[in-house]
């Protein structure tokens, strides 16, 4: 009887140890098949010339040098940095101020305004982009119809990138607003009230108490929006050109990769993808260092 009991305990403990891996096995399979294998295969493609059929020809780093020599690539880099500077950074600041303002209002007001601000983010990217394409249209756009003008928002190079910035700002505001509103719940009202009693005004309490406490939240949002902006594709492409890769004045870096793949240059497309990955990695590490969270 004792031997049987020991054997049952051994079998039971083995099953207990195996059970968690059984439950997470679907994720592991999907991760290996849909992420890890394609990533490694794209790394192999990046050093080969391959058109999707026939033999693969090893070319070393020629694909990477070809991407760097492509003049449109550097224009795309400037476009992404423009989107990052004039969309990502303002939306982070404005959404934080909006969260501060809403949190100070009565609960009944919050129940109305929160869904209104977050609603644009709930729209599909394609649907939101097509809506703004109608709004900005020169011939039948809402803005030109209301103002009685014919401003070429989507045709003039000086206005095209600003149109993309407005779309990105409008769609991203709700997500950051909710994140900051949740982060503000970690700041005790007692702490701010104590600071105000000690003589600090609302601005000083926000700068010296709220913002330092929410430093990890800011780090998370900066990293998230930087990654999203550097690999953006749908908004500038669909808004400006409808479905093609778009003109160089608004083409994102991802558009370069898509152009290579569309033309059958899978090796250069993979190289462009890895350049985007390395760029995002460098910028993210720089932000971590800037925020003092290098660990």
Description:
The chain is mostly helical and 295 residues long. It folds into two domains: 2-39, no CATH class; 62-290, MetI-like (MetI-like fold, Orthogonal Bundle), CATH 1.10.3720. Helix content is 77%, strand content 1%. Strands 1-2 form a two-stranded antiparallel ribbon. Helix 1 crosses helix 13 (266-290) and helix 12 (253-262) packs antiparallel against helix 13 (266-290). The protein is globular. The chain starts with a helix and ends in a 5-residue tail after the last helix.
Architecture blueprint of SSEs:
Blueprint: H1 2-45, E1 48-49, E2 57-58, H2 62-69, H3 71-103, H4 107-122, H5 125-136, H6 142-147, H7 157-184, H8 189-197, H9 202-213, H10 215-230, H11 234-241, H12 253-262, H13 266-290
Helix pairs in contact: 1-13, 2-13, 3-7, 3-10, 3-12, 4-7, 5-11, 7-11, 8-9, 10-13, 12-13
Strand residue percentage: under 5%
Briefly, what CATH class of the largest domain? Mainly Alpha
Any idea what the shape is?
globular
Can you give the mean pLDDT? 84
* Helical content band: over 70%
Q: CATH H-level name of the largest domain... which superfamily?
A: MetI-like
CATH topology of the largest domain: MetI-like fold
What is the annotated CATH architecture of the largest domain? Orthogonal Bundle
Unreliable stretches:
none
Number of domains: 2
Question: Widest sheet: strand order?
Answer: 1-2
Count of individual helical segments: 13
Helix-strand topology string: HEEHHHHHHHHHHHH
What profile does the largest beta sheet have? Answer: 2 strands, antiparallel
- Number of DSSP E strands: 2
Structural class: mainly alpha
Distance between the termini: 54 Å
Q: Evaluate the radius of gyration.
A: 25 Å
């Amino acid at each position: 009887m004792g031997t049987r009991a020991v054997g049952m305990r051994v079998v039971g403990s083995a099953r207990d140890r195996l059970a968690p891996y059984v439950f997470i096995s679907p994720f592991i399979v999907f991760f290996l098949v849909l992420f890890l294998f394609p990533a490694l295969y794209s790394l192999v493609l990046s050093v080969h010339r391959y058109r999707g059929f026939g033999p693969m020809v090893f070319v070393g780093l020629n694909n990477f040098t070809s991407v760097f020599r492509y003049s449109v690539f550097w224009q795309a880099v400037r476009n992404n940095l423009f989107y990052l500077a004039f969309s990502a950074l303002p939306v982070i600041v404005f959404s934080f101020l909006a969260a501060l303002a809403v949190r100070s209002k009565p609960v009944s007001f919050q129940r109305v305004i929160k869904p209104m601000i977050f609603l644009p983010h709930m729209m599909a990217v394609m649907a939101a982009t097509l809506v703004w394409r109608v709004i900005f249209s020169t011939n039948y756009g809402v803005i030109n119809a209301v103002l009685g003008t014919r401003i070429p928002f989507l045709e003039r190079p000086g206005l095209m990138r600003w149109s993309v910035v407005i779309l990105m700002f409008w769609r991203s505001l709700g997500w950051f607003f909710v994140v900051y509103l949740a982060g503000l719940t970690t700041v005790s009202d007692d702490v701010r009230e104590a600071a105000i009693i000690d003589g600090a005004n609302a601005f000083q309490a926000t700068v010296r108490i709220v913002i330092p406490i929410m430093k990890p939240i800011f780090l998370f949002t900066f990293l998230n929006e930087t990654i999203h902006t550097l690999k953006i594709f749908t908004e500038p492409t669909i808004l400006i050109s409808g479905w093609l890769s778009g003109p160089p004045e608004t083409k994102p870096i991802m558009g370069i990769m898509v152009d290579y793949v569309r033309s059958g240059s899978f090796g250069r497309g993979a190289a462009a993808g890895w350049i985007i990955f390395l760029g995002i990695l460098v910028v993210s590490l720089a932000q971590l260092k800037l925020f003092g969270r290098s660990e």
